[in-house]
Write a structure and sequence with these properties.
Layout (H helix, E strand, L loop, with lengths): L9 E6 L5 H12 L4 E6 L1 H10 L4 H6 L3 E3 L17 E7 L1 H9 L5 H11 L3 E6 L6 H13 L2 E2 L13 H14 L14
Parallel strand pairs: 1-2, 1-4, 2-3, 4-5, 5-6
Helix pairs in contact: 1-7, 4-5, 4-6
Length: 192
């Protein structure tokens, strides 16, 4: 959301320690080419997962964002409803983070920012990552959906005939961006 004092819309990007950290990295890469100011909240477990799943360094991922907030800084601008944003995407979203958001527990900036997005009736998109799911996971997804969040698991689309993992990641990230009416040109559209 933009305002007269800040003409460029802002989007909060959360990255948790769930498997699939490449989704958050690719989201930041795609947003670099769009007129959106990105505010990154990356958990400590996301940093660990990044080292296990990719060759990216934490400093390189942070450099993709316009603004980086410490996950322990509960006084960061994104923790306030008066800080205007388009909303927030958490990609990937761990079951721990989902549980905190579903119950309104804000022990980290990531959960607090998500809570603010919900209370301000802005768009919260959660790319949940876990399988199989038990009843608490499912209940938490229902709870956040009832609160207004969009639960968008990483589900590959095979109609686009992906040939690489990057094709699958790009399509999934492009579909997340679609939810904010942003097009990075990385989705092979049905019938296109």
């Amino acid at each position: 959301m933009s305002s007269p004092d800040h003409p460029q819309p802002r989007l909060i990007v959360g990255i948790t320690g769930a498997s699939g950290v490449i989704y958050g990295v690719r989201l930041l890469q795609a947003l670099r080419d769009l007129p959106v100011e990105t505010h990154l909240v990356m958990t400590k477990t996301a940093e660990v997962t990044l080292a296990h799943e990719t060759d990216f360094k934490v400093k390189d991922v942070k450099a993709l964002a316009d603004v980086v907030h410490s996950p322990t800084d509960l006084a960061a601008p994104v923790s306030s409803g008066s800080f205007r944003t388009m909303g927030m995407v958490i990609a990937p979203c761990s079951m721990r983070s989902l549980g905190e958001i579903a119950t309104g527990i804000s022990t980290s900036l990531l959960a607090r920012a998500a809570d603010v997005v919900l209370k301000e009736r802005r768009k919260l998109v959660l790319m949940v990552r876990e399988t199989p799911l038990h009843a608490v996971h499912l209940r938490n997804m229902v709870t956040v959906a009832e609160l207004g969040a969009i639960v968008a698991p990483a589900m590959p689309a095979f109609y686009s005939r992906p040939t690489t993992v990057d094709d699958i990641v790009n399509h999934s990230v492009g579909r997340l961006l679609d939810l904010f009416d942003l097009d990075a040109g990385i989705v092979k559209r049905w019938g296109g």
